[in-house]
Amino acid sequence: MAAPWRVAVVGGGIAGLAAAVRLRDRAPAGTEITVYEQSGALGGKLRTGELAGQAVEFGAESFLMRDPAGGESAAVALVRRLGLAGRVVHPTVGQAALAVDGGLRPIPGGTLVGVPGDLAAVAAVARPAVDADRDAGRPLLGPDDDVAVGALVRARLGDEVVDRLVDPMLGGVYAGRADDLSLATTMPALARAARVEHTLVGAVRAAQAAAPRAPGAPVFGTLAGGLGALVEAAATASGATIRRDAAVREVTPAGAGWRLTVGPTRDAQHVDVDAVVLAVPARPAARLLDAVAPEAAAAVGGLDYASVALVTLALPQPALPALSGFLVPATEGLLIKASTFFTTKWGHLRRPDGLALVRASVGRYGDEAQLQRPDEDLAATVHRELSAVLGAPLPAPVAGHVQRWGGALPQYPPGHLDRVASARARLRAGHPTLALAGAAYDGVGIPVCVRSGATAADEIITALGGSRT
Questions:
Q1: Beta-carbon neighbour count of residue 268 at 10 Å?
Q2: Run of H or E including 35
Q3: Is 225 left (phi over 0), alpha (psi -120 to 50) or beta?
Q4: Which of 68, 204, 224, 466 is the most exposed place for a label (fewest CB within 10 A)?
Q5: Averaged over 98-121, what is the pLDDT?
Q6: DSSP state, residue 171
């Protein structure tokens, strides 16, 4: 009788946990799964805490309900698999604003991450270069081309569309700049359309038509009680052995499998397994790959990251607008790059005493020096800037929390997807029982990370001989 498979998942974020659940569901019965997490907490950038007696997210706050093709997202599928569908809630206020020219203006509808399919619709916020987006008789991009988002949009629609719309919307997700971020990675639907369409406006319209959204269908969801429930349920459903505070320092070939070196140098433990899912950021993954797959390590190891801080304030009965929050273009000169009015946006968080939870995101790529300020300074600056944007002094907070996420958000340069594909191809050819998963490779957001982890698990199952179904 064959011995049960032994699979190590390195990294206990949502991608690693999704991989572990998929392994439990599809690998042969008896498969031994161990998740190694170097910190003391599972979930990665999913972290539910408490402020002023209420559960609040100190990391990711929601997930997309639909995938790019219009079906349910991988996050929703995982939520259903874990028996949590009854806890899904949706925003009760969806309109957000841009902080421009000293005031708040509604974010125009009908754009694709700020890129308009109707120039007139964005005129109140930005003046497009109306004559630049001409049909030159050929697609905007070649079949394999990738460009920075900012380069394409500036050339076609002008600087204001980038600076006032696209940049703050991308910055709210990636803490990066449109001029640095890959179109194919951050806006894949637009990249696909740009390989066919001759104008940018036409490409936006084509991308929107390819993935229509049912009127009134919710775009985002979260879990009542917090996304920490998703982390806990995934860990439980995986049936994996969870090793916290367990840093994997080396992954080396051992017979037909792998040997992991776990823990401090002076007291290292060696563990033999049949396969490994590396669900860690790019640089730690590159260090682990360097001795066994140096070319794959080089392909992913150069990825840079942005650091952010999330400052959450509990404010007694503030006068807040009926908005989910606002984004701030870098040209406004504020420390805040985005803010969310939690207790306005999410009806299930509203309190009878009127206490409001407001969160601000601080930190843009290349400006990490601002994050060196003490927590008290960051919180005071956020409070002051929120008051300025809203046009009236906010009440003093009764509680606050500063969550720092160092090196949290990958910055995908043009060509990122090709480099990742090259790394994975080399691993499949030379080390098929070693797979990569996570935001470093496939993009940010809970659904993308869940799908990435599940795909890595499927590759491992195939490499080891197939599933039980």
A1: 12
A2: strand 32-36
A3: left
A4: 466
A5: 93
A6: H
Cα 388–chain centre separation: 29
For residue 442, which phi and psi values (nearest 5 degrees)? -115, -10
Give the long-range contacts of residues 200-207, CB within 8 A, separation 24 or more: 200/115, 200/133, 200/140, 200/152, 200/153, 200/156, 200/157, 201/116, 201/117, 201/118, 201/119, 201/133, 201/157, 202/135, 203/140, 204/111, 204/112, 204/115, 204/116, 204/117, 205/117, 207/112
| Class of residue 313 by CB neighbours under 10 A (exposed 0-12, middle 13-18, buried 19+) | buried
Instruction: Give the tokens for residue 274.
Output: 């049949």
Hey, what are 151's tokens? Answer: 């380069």
| Burial of 202: CB neighbours in 10 Å, binned 0-12, 13-18, 19+ | middle
Residue 454 CA to residue 458 CA, distance in Å, equals 6
Distance CA 171, CA 168 (A): 5
Is the entire prediction scored with pTM above 0.90?
yes
Q: Can you tell me whether residue 362 is helix, strand or coil?
A: strand
Is 388 strand, coil or helix?
helix
Which position has the token pair 């650091």? Answer: 307
d(CA 62, CA 75): 10
CB-count exposure of residue 435 (10 Å: 0-12, 13-18, 19+): buried
β-strands 32-36, 241-243 pairing:
parallel
Rounded-to-integer distance, Cα 417 and Cα 191, Å = 12
Residues 247-284 have pLDDT tens digits of: 999 999 999 999 999 998 888 899 999 999 999 999 99
Classify 212 as helix, strand or coil. coil
One-character DSSP codes across 246-265: --EEEEEEETTEEEEEES-G
Q: State the alpha helices, DSSP H only, in 58-148.
A: 74-81
Q: Round the CA-based radius of gyration of the chain to a whole number and report it.
A: 23
Helix (H) or strand (E) holding 457: helix 446-464
Residue 243 tokens read as 């090793």
User: Tell me, what DSSP letter sits at residue 345?
Assistant: H
Q: How many helices (H) and strands (E) does the chain have?
A: 16, 22
Name the token pair of 420.
């990742």
Question: Tens digit of pLDDT for each residue in 133-190?
Answer: 999 999 999 999 999 999 999 999 999 999 999 999 999 999 999 999 999 999 999 9
Cα distances (Å, whole numbers) of residue 235 to 229, 301, 390, 450, 455: 10, 28, 41, 13, 18
CA nearest neighbour of 169 among 351, 344, 327: 327
